[in-house]
Write a structure and sequence with these properties.
The structure holds 2 protein chains of 2 kinds. Chain A has 10 helices and 10 strands. Chain A has helices at 12-15, 59-66, 88-97, 113-123, 129-142, 158-170, 188-203, 215-221, 239-244, 249-258; strands spanning 19-30, 33-44, 48-52, 74-79, 82-83, 98-101, 176-180, 207-211, 224-229, 232-237. Chain A is an alpha/beta fold. Chain A is globular, with a radius of gyration of 18 Å. Among the domains of chain B are: 18-54; 83-163 and 376-503, MetI-like fold, CATH 1.10.3720.10; 249-346, no CATH class. Chain B starts with 21 loop residues before the first helix and ends in a 5-residue tail after the last helix. The longest helix of chain B is centred in the N-terminal third of the chain and has 35 residues, at 83-117. Chain B has 15 helices and 10 strands. By secondary structure, chain B is mostly helical. The chains are: A alpha/beta, B mainly alpha. The A-B interface holds A 67-69, 92, 95-96, 98-100, 102, 104, 106-110, 119-120, 123-124, 126-132, 151-152, 154-155, 165, 168-169, 171-172 and B 210-216, 405, 407-408, 410-418, 421, 425-426, 429-430, 433, 506-509.
């Protein structure tokens, strides 16, 4: 299967949409270790892409490169028409358009939930505090925890913290949301409350790249599923085809181990 | 076998016997331990006193007012007329070097610590070498090294000035130009305070506007501009404020005419009032939505002790130290007279003035309009302490920043905060929490290490005290003063650090 065609496995309707994220030959080394070995990938506007793969396959590194938490050394990453280069202006622009949700939530523990959410809108977008707080309350309503606004992150459960983290990202009105194993640090009974919020987001037309091990979520919500191995994309397909009829042997092995 | 229907007493209702009651045991043990400590201390002190009296070495503090007959190298009073005054001069010298030392060591330490974390290779290496060198050499060696370097400088002559005589370097010390408070300063300060109130309101208005409408209203820039403007307007205008002095004079008159009994009554009222307010607040904190909760034995003990504390205070005011109220009256009057003198009169000159170092007969002129001079004694102790302590502070700052998980700055970057914003709003507030307690320790260390002054002959409280007990053999009494002084310094520092710590605490549950 050739990876040169980055728009592989797209429906005609999806193919007609604009490219939101384009990666071409992205390579990344940590010292001697090559984490990405030339990734080609295109994410369309309003597409939900789920990235699967064994640990160490470069899934997290890839999405961390997309908002420049890691710097790729070769290749090209273009987000919404802006290329990610050394230009600080481009980096700032992309970061304020790309939201990110981390495995460990990374909420600011010294700020209340409300302040966590309003910090960036007030300081980066220069919104008024009143407006930012109104938006924050709306977002908390949307993720289902309106009553927790005055609490500190340490007072919330893991699932609640992760939902605050999602609200914090949404407050910047991003065009793309990146999820880096958002449910891996959660107790089992809290996973669904976070996944429900993510499903709502997907249904609302958000462009999303989700690194996860939740196969149910991938099957139900993803437009396409990507399988990565050893720093590169091995297989891209629509979820039904991916799970029922994988092409590559590596994918088959992976699926047989986890399903 | 009878079917017993006797009601089971609910365990929480029953009062256990005293020897099993944890509350009474807890308080009882504390009271007994306190009493034992006080008794042991009193016993030891009285024994020491009797023994020393028998040997003909009385311990008392009557010598405080004796003539000192010593000369201090520098300080507020170099020819003190009493031993008490000499010790006070020494204390001020200690506080001076500790205060300035803490400030400068903190600035250097923060700077070096952040430099060690920077991605700039050169800054990082220089900072690492700084830290590793300075913290591995004993502070006494460093002080002596500075002393050797500074005393090997040339004689003080007109030629030892550099940069057009702005800076003098010689074995008599280092002198640089100084900005000092001239006669008009206090009136200028008062005018500035008046303007400051206005600026505060402008600031608040702008802040509210920014909160409502968004955008950047340049609050910091505008208020800075207003301060500069106010300072400039008040610069020549300060003589119009000379009437403020008469207000302070009037307050001094009123304060000085308070009868002693009235002051005692006022102090008693304050003590009793404090206890009453404390008890009321305490009861308030025990109030639940369903009304006042049932008070435990522990609660009763606390309230009783608040009352006893007020009683002890009253006892102190009326019987143990009756001079307290007249001392408060006198020093209060002196204070307001001092303010009246500073603010009032014909002090219509400029608020600030500056002067280059001046020389007279091969010495620096130290008083009046002249430069800021560091004697070699001060300078060697100061450089030694500051550089040594700053290397530790640098490591504390570095550790504090590293203690903030990298995920925090990643999250800040991911929501679009710039590096400066992320540092200011996310990383430093959390690092500060880690930095504060060990930083307080370094401040205490620096303050205590000032006693190494004795190695270079700087007139700090230890050196002065030693010269005094060499004269009058009141060794224990002087030790008592030293210990009280350093304890007071350390406790004040700890108190400030603890207050800051409490304000920085992160709510966990």
């Amino acid at each position: 299967m050739s990876m040169s065609d980055a728009n592989i496995a797209l429906s005609a309707e999806m193919a007609a949409r604009d490219n939101m994220i384009t990666c071409r030959g992205v390579k990344k080394w940590f010292g001697d270790f090559q984490a990405l070995t030339g990734v080609d990938l295109t994410v369309k506007d309003r597409e939900v892409m789920v990235v699967l793969g064994p640990s160490g396959s470069g899934k997290s590194t890839l999405i961390r490169c997309i908002n420049r938490l890691e710097v790729h050394q070769e290749g090209q990453i273009v987000v919404d028409g802006i290329e990610l280069t050394n230009d600080l202006r481009n980096i700032d622009k992309i970061r304020s358009e790309v939201g990110m949700v981390f495995q460990q939530f990374n909420l600011f523990p010294h700020l209340t939930v409300l302040d966590n959410i309003t910090l960036a809108p007030v300081w980066v977008r220069k919104k008024s505090k009143v407006e930012a707080e109104a938006t924050a309350h709306e977002l908390l309503e949307r993720v289902g925890i309106p009553e927790q606004a005055a609490k500190y992150p340490g007072q919330l459960s893991g699932g609640q913290q992760q939902r605050v983290a999602i609200a914090r990202s949404l407050a910047m009105e991003p065009k793309v949301m990146l999820f880096d194993e958002p449910t891996s640090a959660l107790d089992p009974e809290m996973i669904s409350e976070v996944l429900d919020v993510m499903k709502d987001l997907a249904n609302g037309g958000m462009t999303m790249i989700v690194v996860t091990h939740e196969m149910g979520f991938a099957r139900e919500v993803a437009d396409r599923v990507v399988f990565m191995e050893a720093g590169n994309v091995v297989e891209i397909n629509e979820p039904e085809a991916f799970f029922t009829n994988p092409v590559s042997d590596r994918t088959k092995l992976f699926l047989s181990q986890i399903l | 076998m009878t079917a017993s229907t006797a009601p089971v007493t609910h365990s929480s209702q029953a009062r256990p016997p005293i020897w099993r009651n944890t509350t009474i045991l807890k308080w009882g043990v504390q009271i007994i331990v306190l009493a034992l400590v006080i008794a042991a201390f009193t016993f030891l002190v009285s024994q020491a006193k009797t023994n020393l009296d028998q040997k003909g070495i009385p311990v008392d503090y009557d010598w405080i007012n004796d003539p000192a007959n010593i000369q201090l190298g520098e300080g507020i009073d170099t020819q003190p007329n009493s031993m008490g005054r000499a010790l006070w001069s020494g204390m001020v010298n200690t506080l001076r070097i500790a205060g300035v030392g803490i400030l400068v060591a903190t600035i250097i330490g923060v700077f070096v610590g952040l430099a060690r974390l920077s991605h700039n290779w050169l800054a990082q290496k220089v900072a690492s070498i700084y830290v590793e060198t300075l913290r591995n050499i004993p502070v006494l060696v460093q002080i002596l090294l500075w002393f050797a370097i500074l005393t090997s400088l040339g004689d003080l002559t007109q030629d030892s000035g550099v940069l057009n005589d702005f800076v003098f370097l010689s074995q008599k010390g280092i002198s640089i130009p100084r900005v000092f408070f001239a006669d008009g300063f206090y009136q200028w300060l008062f005018l500035l305070l008046v303007f400051g109130v206005g600026i505060h309101f402008v600031r608040k208005r702008l802040q509210r506007k920014q909160d409502l409408e968004g955008g950047d209203k340049h609050i910091g820039l505008i208020s800075f501009g207003l301060w500069v403007l106010a300072a400039a307007i008040a610069w020549p205008a300060n003589p119009i404020m000379s009437w403020v002095g008469s207000i302070f004079d009037a307050i001094a008159d009123v304060w000085g005419s308070i009868p002693e009994t009235l002051m005692q009554l006022i102090l008693t009222a304050i003590a009793v009032g404090a206890a009453v307010i404390w008890i009321r607040r305490f009861l308030e904190s025990r109030r639940t939505p369903a009304g006042l909760a049932k008070l435990t034995d522990d609660d009763w003990f606390r309230m009783i002790f608040a009352g006893i504390a007020a009683l002890i205070a009253a006892l102190f005011i009326w019987i143990l130290w009756p001079g307290l109220s007249s001392w408060i009256i006198n020093s209060g009057r002196d204070f307001f007279e001092f303010l009246g003198n500073k603010f009032g009169g014909e002090r219509g000159s400029l608020p600030l003035d500056a002067m280059k170092p001046t020389l007279s007969e091969g010495r620096f002129v130290n008083y009046g309009p002249t430069g800021l001079t560091m004697s070699v004694f001060f300078a060697s102790l100061f450089f030694g302490l500051v550089f040594y302590t700053s290397s530790f502070i640098a490591e504390i700052v570095r550790g504090g920043v590293l203690a903030v998980p990298p995920g925090q700055s990643e999250a800040a970057a991911a929501v679009g905060l710039s590096r400066m914003q992320s540092l200011r709003k996310v990383v430093l507030p959390q690092a500060f929490r880690v930095i504060m307690p060990p930083l307080g320790n370094q401040y205490l260390n620096l303050t205590k290490n000032t006693s190494l002054a004795i190695a270079v002959g700087y007139s700090d409280v230890v050196q002065v005290g030693q010269s005094l007990y060499n004269k009058n053999n009141q060794t224990l009494a002087v030790f008592g003063i030293w210990m009280t002084f350093f304890l007071a310094c350390s406790l004040t520092t700890s108190l400030v650090v603890n207050i800051i710590n409490r304000r920085l605490e992160i709510v966990e549950r």
